[in-house]
Design goal:
seven-stranded mixed beta sheet, single chain, about 400 residues, globular, two-stranded antiparallel sheet, Butyryl-Coa Dehydrogenase, subunit A, domain 1
Length: about 400
């Protein structure tokens, strides 16, 4: 009998990383295991997000970690992805908070905002003093964002916004919402982004209760009723759907690595549990059917991790990768993570439904991760269209 082989040793991932990348990963890992995991099940059960940990997350440079300047850490794609992977080892809600703040709010301000907007928002968002949310999805507008009904009407030096956004991560705790709305400018309709700030009359963010997934993530609505937003709060550098789609591309790539953190937590739990669980006079880890499932899970996890690493290094080299490549990673890795979580739940038997173990929490969370930032089917159509040259949208 020998010692279990850690997954990271199996794929020799440390050989692919710089010393600084390993240091950041290990720092986030300590934070998650010492500060988050001891209460993770309780926060999930109570539908609570640990807002008191936000300053610690910010101090590690994880809010807007992939951005340059304005107080942001300027991490490379690999370093930032490793950090998200560790956050999601704790909980998808924890990683979602960082992803939304960095990729969906700070990124568009950095990429499309005015210098005044960057100076006003980015430094305080990097420190966690300001929390943001991203308002694109509506009750009747999900995979088809072009069908949104939220409107912005010019009125002097302001815009008047009306509409409702739904399934908005961090909206109940946000100080600013980046809202996408249709503007009718002289008979020409376009989609523009507005920074709607807490305290503006008519801006409300009710919480969505009763979720059975991402329970430790603050999810709500954005309700806009004749909200007067100064024209200086409109992002000047983008219009049309290319704006929100660019933001989603940024977020999806981080999610693709983050989701594998949840899968790795499930695999670690299964190996530990099956090595201790005795049935028919021996540990169940010695049974062939159990070992086959563990081998399948590790192989799929390795494939997803190394595929993501390849594209992350390519992104660092070239400055970007294509949305199709991002869809490949997001679709595969979220599917892999959910499959691993489901198999892990089965291998834990009845104990697999207890919050004492992280598996059921990850399995339920991954049902949302599988769907958001582009459903699995949307990514299938993106890939299928690119490979055949015939788009089905």
């Amino acid at each position: 009998m020998s010692e279990p082989l850690p997954f990271e040793k199996l794929i020799a991932i440390d050989e692919l990383l710089t010393e600084e990348e390993r240091m950041v990963r290990d720092s986030v890992r300590r934070f998650v295991r010492e500060r988050y995991l001891p209460s993770a099940g309780e926060w999930f059960a109570k539908e609570e997000f640990p807002t008191h940990l936000i300053p610690e997350i910010a101090n590690m440079g994880l809010l807007g970690g992939g951005l340059q300047g304005y107080g942001c850490a300027g991490m490379g794609a690999v370093m930032y992805g490793l950090a998200l992977n560790e956050l999601e080892y704790g909980d998808s809600g924890l990683r979602s908070f960082a992803s939304v703040q960095g990729s969906l709010v700070m990124y568009p301000i950095s990429a499309f905002g005015s210098e005044e907007q960057k100076l006003r928002f980015l430094p305080k968002m990097a420190t966690g003093e300001l929390i943001g949310c991203f308002g694109l999805t509506e009750p009747d507008s999900g995979s088809d964002p072009g069908s949104m009904t939220t409107r912005a009407k010019k009125d002097g030096d302001d815009y008047i916004l009306n509409g409702t956004k739904f399934w908005i991560t961090s909206s109940p705790i946000s100080h600013v919402a980046l809202v996408w709305a249709k503007v009718d400018d002289g008979g020409v309709e376009s989609i523009r982004a507005f920074l709607v700030e807490r305290g503006m009359p008519g801006f409300e963010t009710p919480t969505i209760h009763g979720k059975m997934s991402l329970r430790a993530s603050p999810t709500g609505e954005i309700v806009l009723t004749d909200v007067r937003v100064p024209a200086r709060n409109m992002l000047p550098g983008v219009e049309g759907l290319k704006g929100p789609l660019a933001c989603l591309t940024q977020a999806r790539f981080g999610i693709a690595m983050g989701a594998l953190g949840a899968a790795r937590a499930c695999l670690d739990t299964v190996v530990s549990y099956t090595n201790l669980r005795v049935q028919f006079g021996t540990t169940i880890s010695s049974k062939q059917l159990v070992q086959k499932q563990i081998a399948d899970m590790a192989t799929d996890l390795a494939t997803g991790t190394l595929t993501w690493m390849h594209f992350a290094r390519l992104k660092e080299k070239n400055g970007s990768i294509s949305p199709v490549q991002v869809s490949l990673c997001k679709r595969n890795n979220c599917k892999v993570a959910l499959d691993i979580a489901r198999k892990s739940r089965g291998l834990l038997g009845g104990n697999g439904i207890l919050l004492e173990y992280p598996v059921i929490r990850h399995m339920l969370n991954l049902e949302s991760v599988y769907t958001y930032e582009g459903t699995n089917e949307v990514h299938e159509l993106i890939l299928g269209g690119a490979l055949t040259g015939k788009y089905a949208f």
